[in-house]
Amino acid sequence: MNNNANVQGSASNLHEAVKNLLTAWSEAKNCWRDVKSQEFEATYLDNLPNDAARAVTVINEIDALLKKVRRDCE
Hints:
With 74 residues, the protein is mainly α. It has helices at residues 3-28, 35-45, 48-73. Helix 1 packs antiparallel against helix 3 (48-73). The relative contact order is 0.15.
């Protein structure tokens, strides 16, 4: 697998992991409905989709930079 595929795979893996985590959380909070679950959600999950989207943006920027470096070194 080339480096470009690794970078894109990382972005895809992150997106899929967040999706899976939020699905699991949705199921878990059906049973866990107390103050601590609300604190957990607010602390760790509320901003996760936005944080992951920003991370994917940065990953794509790094990918573009790596491509430019490779071209410049050829």
